[in-house]
Amino acid sequence: MNVSLDDLIFNLNNLKVRQRVLFSGTIYTARDAAHKRIIDLLDSGNKDKIPFNLNNSAVYYCGPTPTKPGNIVGACGPTTSSRMDIFTPRLLKEGVKVLIGKGNRSKNVEKSIEENKAIYFIVTGGVGALISKSVVKADLIAFEDLGPEAVYRFEVKNIPLVVAIDSYGSNIFFRG
User: Fold this and answer.
1) Interval 124-142: pLDDT, tens
2) Residue 146: which CATH number?
3) Is 22 a catalytic residue?
4) Which of 4, 60, 87, 138 is the most exposed, having the fewest neighbouring CB atoms within 10 Å of its CB?
């Protein structure tokens, strides 16, 4: 199924665990350090200084590698999502609707995804070079001093994703 960010926002309740999509649209990269800075801006009342509108946004847990000549971006595979779990509920309350990364999430994040009618997609680890081929435009937009953990705005076409936690809280991961 090919979907844009607007399609996802409009149809979040129709997407179910294990469903595959080819996503096209705008996503923002953010890892641990960028998440902390965004939360610090929210906590200090400086929401207007956050580098992108959190409402109805898509966040990809990724730190791209340096770009080689002739390429739009370096390898940009997912990082382990659970490292962002401490920040995720707050960002979901602020309006983030799409999370993209790899690995399981905490029960608290699962609950927050359900409460905020958001969705968590997984990307297979180790496919950073392949995913970079789906990036049609990449702009560094904030926190350049963080190096690969800076925030980038990616325009992407047909990134393969799998629904890992749907807006009803169903989870693809085994809990034993």
Assistant:
1) 877 888 889 999 999 999 9
2) 3.20.130.10
3) no
4) 4
